[in-house]
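Anyone up for a design puzzle?
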């Protein structure tokens, strides 16, 4: 490898975190994420697990110490667990953390193997604990399967963070009960503002729920203490008094978080996106095929100069999404 120096972008931010969307496919169709009839990539366009692992190695060599497997639904791919095992072998030896974001529909089957691979924490999307509302938001989802997946992960010793997208008129009345439930279960909870990524069948403005108001309402019901815990990520955290639960707020629309951004995102086609909300990207699979790891390293280095300072998300009635690709392409 040409250089072992850390990856520093043009704005002085050190890149330590890689998110990999291992597939754009999903068994659910969450309304804020996807259109009901999504066009997914033909399978031959997906990188092989070997290619994904090779690209991951190039990032680890440049100081990336955290990798998250995401999607689409990462567990839709038959070789995701094997990939996790492979990347997991780098834990303590280049990688500090390997983690996953999943909708948990297939987690019951795989939780044990993921834990054995070294995954210690997992993010599970759960926008409602009411079976009908869950089905409505996901269009196809079976809440019981997701809860089974969560239980299996807990039994395997994996710490759980629930991701809940706050949706006006859909699940806003469930936010406080979700926080109480997470407190009882020992789960963390991240609340997320819906982001304008990709065309869906609805106008996101109708469902956009600004988190500052949500937080104010939660503060009047729960004892929440500002937590100094800070990742280089977008969330701000509070501790739910008397529990181990940490509440995170991910508010890209109402509180820009880009100053400390430490991450880049790899699609299942091998495109490295430098910002969730911008189009700047480079083709790392092409570099890998043309020149192997040295060419990938050079491409990553060159990409650092192109990482945008910030997203420019905006939610307004009738406004086009900030970028045409859905969150499932770059992994949430
Ligand atoms: N399928 C997995 C899941 O749902 O956990 C992983 C991929 S999903 C794209 C990752 C996260 O992004 C989920 O927590 C989901 O709720 C969130 N998400 C998807 N589309 C979003 C959007 N437009 N705005 C905000 N969050 C979104
Ligand atoms: Fe699938 Fe996750 Fe998007 Fe829901 S949020 S449709 S589970 S990729």
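Challenge accepted. My sequence:
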């Amino acid at each position: 490898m040409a250089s072992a120096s850390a990856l520093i972008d043009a704005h002085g931010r050190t890149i330590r975190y890689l998110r990999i969307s291992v597939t754009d496919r999903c068994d659910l169709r969450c309304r804020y994420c996807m259109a009901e009839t999504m066009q997914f990539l033909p399978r031959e366009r997906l990188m092989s697990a070997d290619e994904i692992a090779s690209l991951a190695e190039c990032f680890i060599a440049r100081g990336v110490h955290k990798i998250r497997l995401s999607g689409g639904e990462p567990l839709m791919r038959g070789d995701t667990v094997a990939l996790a095992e492979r990347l997991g072998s780098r834990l303590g030896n280049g990688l500090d953390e390997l983690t996953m974001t999943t909708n948990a529909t297939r987690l019951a089957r795989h939780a044990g193997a993921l834990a054995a691979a070294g995954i210690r924490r997992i993010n599970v999307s759960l926008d409602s604990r009411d079976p009908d509302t869950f089905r409505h938001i996901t269009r196809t989802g079976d809440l019981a399967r997701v809860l089974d997946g969560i239980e299996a992960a807990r039994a395997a010793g994996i710490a759980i963070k629930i991701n809940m997208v706050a949706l006006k008129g859909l699940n806003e009345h469930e936010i406080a009960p979700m926080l109480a439930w997470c407190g009882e279960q020992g789960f963390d909870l991240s609340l997320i503002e819906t982001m304008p990524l990709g065309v869906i069948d609805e106008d996101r403005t109708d469902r956009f729920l600004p988190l500052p108001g949500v937080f104010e309402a939660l503060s009047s019901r729960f004892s929440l203490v500002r937590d100094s815990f800070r990742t280089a990520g977008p969330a701000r955290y509070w501790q739910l008094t008397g529990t181990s639960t940490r509440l995170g707020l991910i508010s890209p629309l109402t509180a820009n978080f880009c100053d400390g951004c430490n991450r880049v995102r790899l699609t299942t086609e091998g495109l490295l996106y430098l910002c969730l909300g911008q189009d700047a990207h480079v083709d790392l699979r092409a570099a890998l095929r043309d020149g192997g790891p040295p060419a990938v390293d050079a491409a990553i280095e060159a990409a650092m100069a192109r990482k945008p300072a910030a997203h420019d998300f905006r939610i307004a009635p009738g406004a086009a999404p900030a970028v045409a690709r859905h969150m499932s392409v770059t992994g949430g």
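A detail worth pointing out: The mean pLDDT is 92.
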